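User
New here, help please:
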Amino acid sequence: MIHFFSDPSRIGIRLAGLALSILVAACAQPRAGSSAGFEVAMVADPGPATIEMPDARSDAPSTVHVEDLQAFRVESASMQTDPQYGTLAIAFDLEPSDAERFEAWTAVRVGRPMAILVNRRVLTVATLQSALPGSGIIPGGPNGFSPAEAERIVEELEAR
């Protein structure tokens, strides 16, 4: 079972028998002019600065501890088939001004688990396999996103 929790200063996700943590600095707000809230952060060991966030994918409360929260502006988002699972996923392209920064940020974090957040809600946690060149896929896991869920996420990502 996944358990998410949140308050104004902390985010957390607790998986049955395993606690993952995300440290989010108070100053880690989206940059001026950023989209509605596409953010990534590295999953970290539990620590004193945990931010609690609601689970975007279920009604069950869950928590994840993260550090190094970064906001990026999305140029476009669309529903797509996840090449790994064959299920519904979300493809995104970042604004050109953020694409280079995103690629550099992911390049030095390959092999580490990364949390993907939309509007301060964790959608998924995945291990970075390679640097991402300003675009990527948000996987919905083995069951994928429902069509309604995917449509809502695309709308949130493209909100200006």
In short: The radius of gyration is 14 Å.
